[in-house]
Specification:
alpha+beta, 3-stranded antiparallel beta sheet, 37 helices
């Protein structure tokens, strides 16, 4: 085969290789993994650059425009145009009064300076204030490498400086010697070498035998992969096929594999068989009884091997892809790994980001022969004529399509304004209307297109789907993002762990299959993920019509899966934290999440009602959304069908449910009171009284305070969802621009609370959780809590199972902490900080680090140990509810040992149910709380 790369490049090699300051065009862009919202305990990877931009890492002090190259010169000429200000970091454009500009400095608060896009920006000031951090200019502001971003993120974990410095510094310091305050836990995991999860290559040694026909794959237990240190520069190890070990049955001439050693059940309640089919392939023993060493090649090739060459893959009928990857050379996998990381589609040879650049990287000795070998193994497809005509035409560029139109005499009227889809349609219509043209059939057009395109390839659909299935199986315990990001994020983690730049907690992992008792169940789960991804893409394109069609398909699949009684029964035997890894749960979650879209369906006006009723009928697969299901269905009957009595009964049924959470009961009670007090279309007295009987007694409302703030940002079109900017004039005449929370903190400073943080409870939650590190990451047989080395939390995190499994250990630890004083608790925090700092976990290391221990001390003294432990205990009992919604601010007075949790509400802002529930809990614990209402004055079009 002639080489597709005959034309040498005119550019030098140094120009083609990516610079050290930018990421390779062939490396998937580094994922900015953000698993949490601002009001939850952070579970973000250290290489997320959002860490370095967090306002809590900067000195919480107002910064003037002069510090940002945006100083409004006091002696500025009156004829100077405002738009001629030097552009630098983006700040919040605001309505600046002339008197302030002439006499005073404009000072920006940290939150506005760090993240100006969150605030309302008037149109006329968009050209004045620009963010230098988001702007790239040539090679000066090139994108830093993954390693440099990670190191900068780690270096950014600095000491938190309290918003207002205390008048008097405390002289006590935290002792350096940490005593053993905790007795050894019975469930403490075995000590392992910390380097065992950060070396370069994986060595898997597993011993299992064939299961009995009455047991399923869930009972297969394999030891965690052991990792050995192998340099990426090591020579390629020659592959040798392991011997198959079989034994003959004394009663038969046929040979059969050894029987599998049965492991512990996945959960105490999981018994019986789901899949009676036995694994007959003896090749599984080659991997289970022999060592599979992943070495050689580069990171891409090792990553592909790590997710495909796994014993569990045999159970899902992926032997074909295993053989292909096993027989591929490292050079082939270097190229294939980069191809699979790209968007799936045809790749031309000489395109700007085409195959030529891979050749120029010198990844292998003979690039053309590698491609030939990949095609022979059917890992790639080079026959472009095998695809549909419209797909083939779409590979061409617009100028090429225009030239092809001229060749076939297609009408060129208005061709200059003709879009690419329109041009493609013109060729499709031509083929459809004319059986032959230029003396040939449709294949003639394809041949001409092929000559224009040149050498082109695409990953084989079958092989790619098999590898993505292997990736889903490997990553489902820890990956929770969108499907389009799965490969990139998992590869990034693998790469950073190999380089020892990322570490995860040490725990006892069990390699087991949770819900995938057969190949069919796993394929159902993959299909559900694919449909969910398709819905997300359609909604991003605002194609609601086709999104509804896909949701209807999911609804039908959901109903079909529910009809499989054996599958449903097996899922109901396992806890909810394992149940979510099933097709049924994916369908249930996606349908409810998009219920607003289903309400817009015009072809079936009853669709939303049918979906909600079916979800409520099978609410065991939507446990965390039970209250929301009742409320949404009640809304449908109330607004769409005008049946208030039916809506009230739905709310009543929810209130009668014994399994309803406290927050859910609170949400339903609020709506019940609203229905009972309706002035129009009133309920009958019997139903009204029954609703009111479930309403809670009059509870103590949290104290409130009201402050005034001058709004200087302008409401305009497109500014919806952005935060308002407030101004405050200091004694020296400077004008401070700040957010509503910072305005509230300045108010409490005047009340004597000289320390304050706007962290939504992040610090105090991280302090508590760090004290329970060994309990959170401990082992509790026979429960399956860790099945992947990349987990940053146990599988039951944020569920009620978490507390039930560890109840006695948690109670014992709280009892130990109650006996300690503040200094002793801080010693414990220091010990765990030194040992686990920057480990990916439930701890927010931006707040919880050694430099901030003095701040933790003063906060703990003012909050009180009793309140501190009560807050943490509530989080552990029901993390799904109470890991979010804590008050915005915590302000404390060191001198008087006073502390207040403050929820700040701007104009027209109301407390959410979760926030209200947190305030009531804090009051119950004996903490001081307050709701600070900010009344806005000034501002254009301000209500």
């Amino acid at each position: 085969m002639d080489s597709p790369f005959k034309t040498p490049s005119k550019r030098s090699m140094s120009q083609m290789l990516p610079s050290s300051g930018s990421s390779s065009p062939f490396t998937p862009k580094r994922s900015k993994i953000k698993k949490i919202s601002s009001d939850s305990v952070s579970r973000i990877l250290a290489f997320d650059e959002s860490n370095s931009r967090s306002p809590t890492r900067r000195k919480l002090d107002f910064l003037s425009f002069s510090q940002n190259s945006l100083l409004l010169n006091e002696n500025c000429n009156e004829n100077c145009n405002e738009n001629e200000l030097t552009p630098c970091e983006q700040t919040t454009p605001v309505k600046i009064e002339q008197s302030n500009r002439e006499r005073n400095k404009i000072l920006l608060s940290p939150s506005i300076k760090v993240n100006p896009k969150r605030f309302n920006i008037p149109e006329q000031d968009k050209n004045i204030i620009k963010s230098s951090s988001n702007k790239r200019s040539g090679s000066v502001n090139s994108t830093p490498s993954k390693k440099s971003k990670l190191l900068s993120a780690i270096a950014g974990c600095k000491k938190i400086t309290s918003y207002f410095k205390p008048i008097q510094e405390r002289q006590n310091s935290i002792t350096n010697e940490v005593g053993n305050h905790f007795s050894p836990a019975k469930h403490k995991i075995k000590e392992e070498n910390v380097n065992s999860i950060t070396e370069n290559c994986i060595k898997i040694e597993k011993q299992v035998t064939t299961p009995d026909k009455n047991d399923n794959i869930n009972n297969i237990q394999v030891r965690s992969p052991k990792i050995i240190s192998v340099s990426s520069n090591n020579p390629i190890v020659k592959k040798t096929s392991p011997r198959r070990k079989v034994v003959k049955n004394s009663h038969s001439n046929k040979t059969k594999p050894k029987e599998l050693n049965m492991a512990e059940q996945v959960t105490p309640s999981k018994n019986g068989s789901i899949n009676n089919s036995s694994m007959t392939s003896p090749r599984i023993l080659e991997y289970l009884e022999n060592k599979v060493v992943i070495s050689g090649g580069d990171t891409y090739s090792r990553f592909i091997k790590s997710i495909v060459l796994r014993p569990e893959i045999f159970c899902f009928g992926k032997e074909d892809i295993m053989e292909k990857i096993e027989s591929a050379t490292n050079d082939e996998l270097k190229i294939y790994g980069r191809l699979i990381a790209r968007k799936h589609g045809w790749i031309r040879s000489n395109a700007p980001d085409g195959l030529q650049k891979y050749k120029e990287l010198n990844l292998c000795d003979n690039f053309d022969s590698v491609l030939e070998s990949l095609a022979t193994k059917q890992l790639i497809n080079t026959d472009v004529t095998s695809c549909e005509l419209d797909t083939l035409l779409n590979i061409l560029k617009t100028p090429e399509l225009k030239e092809l139109q001229k060749t076939f005499n297609i009408n060129l009227n208005f061709s200059k304004s003709q879009t690419k889809p329109a041009m493609i349609k013109s060729f499709v219509n031509l083929v459809k209307n004319q059986r032959t043209f230029c003396g040939n059939s449709t294949s003639n057009l394809k041949e001409r297109i092929k000559n224009i395109i040149g050498y082109c390839l695409k990953l084989s659909d079958t092989s790619r789907n098999d590898i993505m299935s292997c990736l889903i199986y490997e990553s489902y315990p820890y990956f929770s993002g969108e499907e389009k990001d799965r490969f990139r994020e998992c590869f990034t983690k693998f790469n950073l762990v190999e380089k020892n730049l990322l570490k995860f907690p040490k725990f006892e992992a069990k390699r087991v299959s949770i819900n995938f008792s057969s190949k069919e169940h796993f394929e159902m789960y993959k299909t559900a993920l694919d449909l969910r991804h398709e819905v997300q893409l359609l909604l991003e394109q605002k194609d609601h019509e086709n999104a509804i069609l896909v949701l209807c398909i999911m609804f039908e699949n959901f109903k079909s899966a529910i009809c499989d009684k054996s599958n449903v029964e097996s899922l109901l035997k396992i806890p909810t934290y394992l149940r979510k890894y099933s097709a049924i749960s994916v369908y249930a979650h996606t349908l409810f999440k998009n219920i607003t879209i289903l309400k817009k369906c015009t072809s079936n006006i009853n669709l939303a009602k049918e979906v909600l009723e079916f979800l409520l009928k099978h609410k065991e697969f939507s446990v965390s959304k039970q209250a929301d299901l009742h409320i949404e269905l009640a809304k449908v009957y109330e607004t769409q069908y005008k049946q208030l009595d039916r809506a009230a009964n739905i709310i009543l049924n929810g209130l009668k449910d014994d399994n309803m959470t406290d927050l859910g009961r609170q949400m339903l009670s609020k709506r019940a009171v609203m229905y009972a007090n309706r002035k129009v279309r009133k309920l009958d007295n019997e139903l009204k009284n029954e609703l009111l009987s479930f309403a809670p007694k009059t509870e103590k409302e949290p104290p409130t305070t009201t402050i005034n703030g001058k709004i200087i940002s302008v409401k305009e079109k497109g500014s919806s969802g952005r935060k308002q900017v407030y101004s405050k004039i200091t004694d020296n005449g400077d004008c401070h621009y700040m957010s509503v929370e910072e305005l509230a903190v300045s108010h409490y400073k005047s009340q004597g609370f000289l320390n304050g943080l706007h962290d939504e409870g992040q610090l105090i939650k991280s302090m508590f959780l760090l004290c329970f590190w060994d309990i959170i990451y401990g082992s509790y047989p026979p429960y399956v809590l860790f099945i992947s080395q990349y987990q940053d939390c146990p599988l039951d995190w944020r569920t009620r199972h978490f507390y039930k499994i560890r109840e006695q250990q948690i109670k014992d630890r709280i009892a130990e902490l109650k006996k300690m004083n503040v200094d002793q608790i801080c010693d414990v925090l220091k010990k765990f900080c030194d040992e686990y700092f920057e480990t990916q976990s439930v701890i927010n290391w931006k707040y919880m680090n050694v430099d901030n221990l003095p701040l933790c001390r003063t906060l703990l003294e003012c909050v009180g140990i009793e309140v501190f432990l009560a807050i943490g205990d509530q989080i552990l009992k029901d993390g799904r509810i109470y890991l979010h919604g804590m008050p915005d601010l915590v302000v404390w007075d060191v001198n008087n040992h006073k502390c207040i949790f403050v929820e700040v509400k701007g104009p027209n802002d109301k407390l959410s149910e979760r926030q209200y529930s947190w305030l009531l809990k804090l009051m119950e614990f004996g903490a001081n709380v307050e709701v600070c209402h900010v009344v806005g004055t000034g501002g254009k079009n301000n209500n």
